[in-house]
Design goal:
The complex is a heterodimer of chains A (about 120) and B (about 110). In chain A, about 0% of the residues lie in helices and about 55% in strands. Chain A is an all-beta fold and about 120 residues long. The radius of gyration of chain A is 14 Å and the shape is globular. Chain B has no helices and 11 strands. Classes of the chains: A mainly beta (about 120), B mainly beta (about 110).
C-alpha cells in the first residue's frame, strides 16, 4: 500500500461544531504531517509528528488539536472554527530519521473543509 | 524561519519545448529540496528531489540542479507534454519540516 487515505473528503461544519479529520497510512512511515492549503496557495505546515510524538506545532490556534494514536493513524480534531479556517487540509507521511535526513512526502487527497 | 521564493508564477510553453522553474531559499541549513506537482483538484505528488551533497539529478525528462553557494535550485522539464500542465511547488527542508514556494502554474499548449 503506497497511499495516504484521508476521511472525510468533504466536510461542512458550523462554528459551534466539533469534528475530526482522519488520516491513515500503511507504508511504515514514522513521520506524519498536517498541512493547510488555501486556493491557489502552497501547502502551509501545521503540525509534525515524528515517531508518534508531536515535534513541530507551527503556532496553530488551539481550536485545531492533533492526535497520533499509533504509527499508522493521525487525527485532527476541530472545535469552534472560524469561516477563515475553510481550506483543503492535507495529511502527509514520510520516512523519518533520528538524525537530520529529510524525505519526500506522500500526500493524501485531502479533506475540503467549509466552515459556515 | 526558512523563506522560499519561486519564479515564475505562471509559465506557458509549446508542446515539445523546455520549461525551467527557479527557487531560492534563505536558510543555509536546509539540506533537502523536493519538487511536487499538483494537478487541479488533486494531491501534490513528489516528482523529483535533491539533497544538499548533490549538484544535479535527472529522471527521464525532468532534472533538478542545486547551487548551495547561491542558495538556488531549479527544475528543468524537457520535451514538455500537455499532461505536464499543473502547478509545481519547490520546497526546502530542515529536520523534517518543508517550506514550500508559492508555486508555478505551467501550461503546455498542444
Amino acid at each position: 500500500d503506497t497511499e495516504v487515505t484521508q476521511t472525510p473528503k468533504h466536510l461542512v461544519m458550523g462554528m459551534t461544531n466539533k469534528k475530526s479529520l482522519k488520516c491513515e497510512q500503511h507504508m511504515g512511515h514514522r513521520a506524519m504531517y498536517w498541512y493547510k492549503q488555501k486556493a491557489k496557495k502552497p501547502p502551509e505546515l501545521m503540525f509534525v509528528y515524528s515517531y508518534e510524538k508531536l515535534s513541530i506545532n507551527e503556532s496553530v490556534p488551539s481550536r485545531f488539536s492533533p492526535e497520533c494514536p499509533n504509527s499508522s493513524l493521525l487525527n485532527l480534531h476541530l472545535h469552534a472554527l472560524q469561516p477563515e479556517d475553510s481550506a483543503l487540509y492535507l495529511c502527509a507521511s514520510s520516512q523519518a530519521d533520528m538524525g537530520f535526513l529529510n524525505y519526500g512526502y506522500t500526500f493524501g487527497s485531502g479533506t475540503r473543509l467549509t466552515v459556515v | 524561519g526558512e523563506n522560499v521564493e519561486q519564479h515564475p508564477s505562471t509559465l506557458s510553453v509549446q508542446e515539445g519545448d523546455s520549461a525551467v522553474i527557479k527557487c531560492t531559499y534563505s536558510d543555509s541549513a536546509s539540506n533537502y529540496f523536493p519538487w511536487y506537482k499538483q494537478e487541479l483538484g488533486k494531491r501534490p505528488q513528489l516528482i523529483i528531489d535533491i539533497r544538499s551533497n548533490v549538484g544535479e539529478k535527472k529522471d527521464q525528462r525532468i532534472a533538478v540542479t542545486l547551487n548551495k553557494t547561491a542558495k538556488h535550485f531549479s527544475l528543468h522539464i524537457t520535451e514538455t507534454q500537455p499532461e505536464d500542465s499543473a502547478v509545481y511547488f519547490c520546497a526546502a527542508s530542515i529536520t523534517g519540516k518543508s517550506t514550500f514556494g508559492d508555486g508555478t502554474t505551467l501550461t503546455v499548449k498542444p
